[in-house]
Design brief:
The chain has about 350 residues and is an all-alpha fold. It contains 17 helices and no strands. The termini are far apart.
Length: about 350
């Protein structure tokens, strides 16, 4: 049941993201204004991440005072329920939003073409479609293959074990969950700063490749090092490191919202963005989590690191996965097409 409703939620979230980016891009004709609007509105994705982190932190603190669910007080259940809160204003606001003027004008004139998945692979769009999907997958691969593994890594740190020494099982779990929420808060703040930084740089750096490399090249070094070093032995350094990892990785999600609307005409804009974000990112990119967990639990890694506890093996594996996806993304960037003009294709 949880898997089913998680999937239906993701259907809504994925469609909402793509539709919102395409809609916003078409509302603003001035290129610099459009870049700023897309950059700063996408930063609110990280505000949502902060809300989830705070909700989880409060659920850990207040779990025993909240109504029991299935005779338990598990914080993750209350955190999932809190997701209803931001959904309510969306239900109210959505019917009153106007269509973009460009889309509405074409529809009224009868010149609006039907979107076609096959058209994404025609010569004029093929390279942008394939490279963007691959690089989107790499961005999500770093997030899900490394950063999202923190809840399983943090409890294994020496400082966390020291904090839980002598406590009951329930108290130890609560301390570990609270520590995880603090580390995740550092990561979410880093992501928010990264998105805002990209929004500021998007109107100052003309080359889209160079804009992406501002975050990609440092990430190739920083993100694997964070999981190879502080993620296995130093809680305080991990907070600062994961702040940088979040900044460099999450900012790349905003990049695609600024880049992709400039690569497709109005009838293909949502389809092209959806293929990159949902096929490249959500399907292939998020599978990095499965890869990380599979390698971390494999027999050959156990033979390679016989004395390492599971969280440490997971951290080392996350470092390797992050290095791989960042390297692939950095190389693929050389083939990323530059937009031909600042105005959106019609």
């Amino acid at each position: 049941m949880l898997l089913f409703f998680r999937c239906t939620t993701f259907i809504g979230v994925c469609v909402e993201f793509v539709a919102a980016v395409a809609w916003l891009a078409e509302l603003f004709d001035d290129p610099k204004q459009r870049e700023r609007v897309l950059g700063y509105t996408q930063a609110f994705s990280s505000v949502g991440g902060l809300m989830v982190t705070v909700a989880f932190n409060r659920a850990v603190a207040w779990a025993s005072h909240l109504p029991a669910l299935f005779d338990t007080h598990e914080p993750w259940r209350y955190t999932l329920i809190s997701g209803v809160i931001p959904a309510l204003p969306l239900i109210i606001i959505r019917p009153f939003l106007p269509e973009s003027p460009g889309w509405q004008e074409k529809k009224n004139k009868g010149t609006l073409k039907r979107p076609s998945f096959v058209e994404l692979f025609r010569p004029q769009y093929r390279r942008a479609t394939i490279v963007a999907a691959l690089m989107f997958a790499c961005s999500y691969g770093a997030a899900f293959g490394a950063i999202q593994q923190l809840p399983q890594i943090v409890p294994g740190l020496p400082q966390v074990k020291e904090m839980t020494t002598g406590l009951s099982k329930a108290e130890s779990k609560k301390v570990a969950e609270r520590t995880v929420s603090i580390v995740q808060l550092w990561q979410e703040v880093g992501g928010l700063v990264g998105r805002c930084l990209l929004a500021a740089l998007a109107v100052r750096i003309a080359s889209r490749r160079n804009l992406l490399r501002v975050f990609q090249v440092p990430g190739l070094i920083v993100v694997p090092l964070v999981f190879f070093c502080p993620a296995v032995n130093n809680l305080e350094l991990l907070k600062y490191g994961i702040f940088l990892a979040g900044l460099l990785t999450v900012s790349q999600f905003s990049f695609w919202g600024n880049y992709l609307p400039r690569m497709y005409p109005i009838h293909l804009r949502g389809t092209g963005e959806s293929f990159a974000a949902n096929v490249g990112g959500r399907i292939f990119g998020t599978s990095a989590a499965f890869v990380t967990l599979t390698i971390a639990g494999s027999g050959w890694l156990a033979r390679l690191l016989p004395d390492a506890p599971p969280p440490q093996k997971l951290a080392y594996t996350a470092a390797g996965v992050a290095l791989f996806v960042y390297a692939v993304g950095t190389i693929a960037c050389f083939w990323l097409p530059e937009p031909q003009r600042e105005e959106l294709p019609e």
